[in-house]
């Protein structure tokens, strides 16, 4: 049984089983769900710990984060197995995610002592100005199930590095990696109350996490919940950072290397079971190469192995749970009812264990206004849109309310340069999958995908700190 961590103590709640989506008979462990009163206690503990932690020795912070990063990397195989078992990522993908989490903690261990400010002369004689950054305060961190250790890492590590205290709620579908991370942080020497873990459903705990007593909320998840947090931030006056998904385009022009383009589409659309906010869900293909591209992608899809996430030959794991699987199937049915053609996959699959298996799906003959091309599916589903050339491709790519990532496959420097400039997205990839980002550079989008400062890298300071300007007459 795994308990919540509040004020340095492990606190019981209501046990809830963590189920393996590759084999629903496999219960990983029981993780205790918190009540709103537990969240209130965690916020109070974080408030009490803020002053000593934010003013404490920088080396203490750096050493704690470095110890956690080192332990994550030392336990790579164990944590990757846990991640694959509870979320459904293949072991290869899980190893990559765990490695990234370790690197994130080590990066922010260095950021602790790389914080800078400015010293300026005033326009008034004899007056000096110091511009510094201070912790924003008590931070609620709410993370999704699709990256159960990397996304917590890229929120927790900078929050602590810049001197904040944390109340962390992971997704209720994937508490295992979050609990393991909390246990490492606890053993690494964090003072009581600096980091608190509360597990449970967002519908039950969310209003307390995004309510009075917190100074900032960082949330990654659905558009509807994110907008509710934004309204709460306006009401209660806390800082808000939101990542709310995408409907990402991958443009394939006639001059592209089609084999490379198909590989980019396969990776971006279907790996990680398509359960990535950066997934290439819209494949926008120039008409003269449309049919050849579709056939090539279908061939590559046919070679994929859908199965148990921990099996050595699996390339695509299960969908995270039955609710998500039924949502994927409903999106496919709606697309076909609107006129799309399902040319590959999409069906639920049966394997040796009772899991949530789905064949990757490819739709053609789709149009911009179809729901499949406007709403995020969050599954192994990609739709193809046929366009006449670059100008139409760019217009279609920008024609949604999201703007997280956008990709283009082309050998034209002119088109690549214009796409980088004019794509309405926070991240642009040229001859690369739209999914796949580095830990030391900013992550985030535009339009309905994101709100507030960017995540990751040194840009994380924009959210986790506040600027102070001091005037001094010596």
Automatic annotation (TrEMBL):
Which keywords does this Swiss-Prot/TrEMBL entry list?
Oxidoreductase
Q: Which PROSITE patterns match?
A: ALDEHYDE_DEHYDR_CYS (PS00070), ALDEHYDE_DEHYDR_GLU (PS00687)
- What positions constitute the catalytic site? 243
GO function term, MF aspect, one: oxidoreductase activity, acting on the aldehyde or oxo group of donors, NAD or NADP as acceptor
Q: Aldehyde dehydrogenase domain: which residues?
A: 16-469
Q: Which Gene3D superfamilies match?
A: Aldehyde Dehydrogenase, Chain A, domain 1, Aldehyde Dehydrogenase, Chain A, domain 2
- UniProt KW DNA repair keyword: no
Its family remark reads: Belongs to the aldehyde dehydrogenase family.
What protein does this entry describe?
Answer: Aldehyde dehydrogenase
Organism from which the protein derives: Sphingomonas endophytica
